[in-house]
Specification:
Mean pLDDT: 88
Number of helices: 0
Radius of gyration: 23 Å
CATH superfamily of the largest domain: TolB, C-terminal domain
Number of strands: 31
Strand content: over 45%
Number of domains: 2
Low-confidence stretches: none
Largest sheet: 5 strands, antiparallel
CATH class of the largest domain: Mainly Beta
Helix content: under 10%
CATH topology of the largest domain: Neuraminidase
Length: about 375
Amino acid sequence: MFVRGGALLTQAFDPDRRKVSGTPQKIADRVFVDTRAHAAIAVSSTGSLVYRSDVPEERRQFTWVNRKGALLQTVGEPLATSEASTPALSRDDTRVAFSLPSANAVGVRNIWMVDIARGVPNRLTDVLGEDTAPLWLPDNESIVFSRNVSQIVKKSVATFSSPEETLARTTWAPGTGKPVETDIVGIVTDVSSDGRYLLMRRPSDRGYNILGRDLRGGPTFSVVETSFDELDAQFAPNGRWIAYQSNKSGRFEIYLQPFRDSRKAEIRVSAAGGAQVRWRRDGSELFYVAPDGTLMAVPIQFGPGDDPVTPGVAVPLFRTNITKAPQSLARQQYMVASNGQRFLMNAVVAPPGTSPLKMILNWSPRQR
């Protein structure tokens, strides 16, 4: 069984020869398939088949709000997709780069950019692959992003035709089909303020890990690696500390840890759950999203030489409208202005509707 053009089809298959035969037969129309090519279908050996029909797409819009959550400005038109993801605000607060799925090919994503003042989106990449997680480099005119989880690419945002440069690529050990550990790359999550180091997230057999990479050269190295999920690390402005989320306590919480000094223990910041952490540009505050969707602010005090770090008490700012499940594996869906007084939210403006599960009983394949 497979879905093509929204229709659920079935075709005879010979497992010994590994070949299909005959003409595909349509069973149902308008089957839901997400942008990751996951089809909402299931079938049993007893002749029962269930599927979900297509649902209206979620719509998102970039929206400026103040520290009380009051609307300041909307940016452009709503994006008619549930997968406008991994947004990144330029260092001068004038542009947003983000990832969008292709409207013409399942499993394909490209990098786009929108000028905040004009609200006009422009495509930056167009490959038959998965481009995601753009990050702005210090020059404010170029980005790095992940391609197919196995490459890190740099590109100028000047024009669509600007050349690309592959900065890192997963290397495969000859004859083993396995990646070389020191040359593994993942999905980029942040770049240091001097543009030298990258942080990445990558799944393993034991959960997600945080990796680092020196763009001046050298192998990938481990930053945080446990049997739990450590995700979406962000550099402190001084580059010596990182903030990230981990579920080692049984739910996602926010932690601080030195970037390259594993001898020092991590510092837990959140008290009752937290995800999607971001720094204020001057390092004086840390922001995260609580389980109920509230944006929290935590004052941060650095000691002499940026050590030790002392987090204050988390203060609720406002209830966000960026996700139904903050404590998931979803990336940050909001951005912090350079002065820390405004937030650019990738807000949900039209939640998707629901559709019923439909069941077909006593189904059996027909040879044609």
